[in-house]
């Protein structure tokens, strides 16, 4: 397969090892709305590698049964880690980051997971179990004639969220998401993460200010899953205001990342 696109940001003399960022759904690496565009200031001190997952940004489409697949993403992440890197993943990208770190912990220098979509790790939690049931049902019932514009609207409007402008780039990632391999059902081996010597953190929003339906359907299960995951892998759990941490609270997230990376030095 062709390599994925990754935007590299750095200044002369930037600190090493680099940091690899893996974005979530409806986004791409440098996206300001849902991606890691607000983490650009970190490049003043360290080389950043902002990955576009397959079917997103400037990366090629994925051929096969899925338009995007966390297992393939994990392989791409491992390739970007090089001889070793800090690793940051959000949402769907958090699942890919976990799989990559579990498979090659020797290449990871620290791990930060921002509201990762790895729900099966907390399936015993009632609120998580209910979300998994809803998600499995809704994924199986997508209308055959659903358009990317429809999907973009239905992914936001019913939850009380503003629908992003239907730009070609946003419609492409919506089309990709319509055919994704569901990340919330991923089976992830957590033992290598728990045994790793590098520092790890799990970041979640407090969901204050989120539309009530969005908080109920997404916020509560993601919060429960983040808590369980942090406990199981021995990571620090950090809660910040809002519900889209890296875009709503960029200063807090950037400070947390800087602190985490310093701990790994």
Descriptive labels:
265 residues; 7-stranded mixed sheet
Describe it:
The protein is α/β, with parallel strands linked by helices and 265 residues long. It has nine helices and seven strands, in the order βββαβαβααααβαβαα. It has helices at 70-81, 92-103, 126-140, 148-154, 168-178, 191-195, 212-233, 245-248, 250-263, and strands spanning 6-9, 15-22, 46-51, 85-90, 108-114, 200-205, 236-240. A seven-stranded mixed beta sheet has the order 1-3-2-4-5-6-7, sandwiched between helices. Strand 6 (200-205), helix 7 and strand 7 (236-240) form a beta-alpha-beta unit. The two termini are 34 Å apart. The mean pLDDT is 95.
List the helices and strands and how they pair.
Blueprint (H helix, E strand, L loop, with lengths): L5 E4 L5 E8 L23 E6 L18 H12 L3 E6 L1 H12 L4 E7 L11 H15 L7 H7 L13 H11 L12 H5 L4 E6 L6 H22 L2 E5 L4 H4 L1 H14 L2
Parallel strand pairs: 2-3, 2-4, 4-5, 5-6, 6-7
Antiparallel strand pairs: 1-3
Helix pairs in contact: 1-2, 3-7, 4-5
